[in-house]
Amino acid sequence: MFGNSKITSKSLAAGVMSIALAGLTAVSAPVFAGKKLEIDETKWISVGAGLRTVARSVEDAAPNGSDRSTDFDVENIRLYFSGQVHEYIKFTFNTDEIFADGPVDVLDLIAQFEFSPEFNIWVGRMLTPADRIEMNGPFYGLSWNQYTQPLYPSDQGGEAGTYGRDDGVTLWGTLGKFQYALGAFDGLQGKSNVEDNLLFAGRFAYNFLNMEDNPAYYTSSTYFGGLGNILTLAVSFQSQDGGTGSATESGDFSGYTVDLLSETVFDGTGVLTIEAEYKDFDADYTVATTPSTGACFCLFEGDSYFVTGAFLFPKKVGPGKFQPYLRYVENSPNDSDESDLTEFGVNYVIDGHNARLNFNYSSGDANISGYKGNDVDSFSFGVQIQI
Predict the structure, then answer these.
(1) For residues 25 and 378, is the Cβ–Cβ distance under 8 A?
(2) What CATH number does the domain containing 299 carry?
(3) 237, pLDDT greater than 60
């Protein structure tokens, strides 16, 4: 694959990115919006849709390798379906079509047994409990380009789940200001997982101030001040024996994340949002040290962190409000060089996460592979709409 030497070439980051980016833009998205049709007191159906499209210009990304590229992409076209068939039984079915001309894929297909705020069971294809940026997805992030860190196995191209989802079961609930989610999933099937071990995942969050308001164990990276003052600290983990390597050389994977969200509402003067995260992965076989034989499901090993600060101005300009933000990310693999990236952007918030525009500029060499890529600058203008 990439050999056992220290990674210095552009091909490493490009190779991993080509796998990960295929599913990245469809990473988790809670379904907040939709039209609800009530059938009787206990039965209803809700239908919704989401669209994200972007115009992007990237330094040295034209086919000749030296000129600036300019591209228009439809990153997500989504259909949301959910319903309730019994007082304690619901279902969710969501789809996503990537890059407009790509295949229509099933994001979620969940049988939901919801008994009380304290204890619920979901079975089917769903989000694996993970860190905040993987749990809120592109539609509920604070920045437009939040995926410049290495992600968990279910976001690595389809062999261990796709789009942050996997087949399995999750137990979740809320106890006072404490929220939990624990799950068991297929994880990587085949290759190094010759014993058919399950992947185990969990997320534990404590809301020190006001409670976050999301479906189940999903998250958002900003509420635009709508929930008042928020301070939430969370720890998540994933682990699978045989979760990395090849059929002849099996290795284990484990990772954990600590993330923080703070949102402070100032009377009449705006909303300050701070998001931060630290991530640590341990993989016996990494992209830089592949097994000697066999196709490898190789992962990132090392740590990564990011910090984002944003301020929502209270005064409307036209139909919306401006929310400038600054984000810094640094990736530190154990077997290669460090990389970093700075993003400055402005959200124009018309209707929360249901209608917003974004303009951003980023500069650096960090990317979703976790390994150092080209050091370039880019501009993008994005439009997000949901109903």
Answers:
(1) no
(2) 2.40.160.10
(3) yes
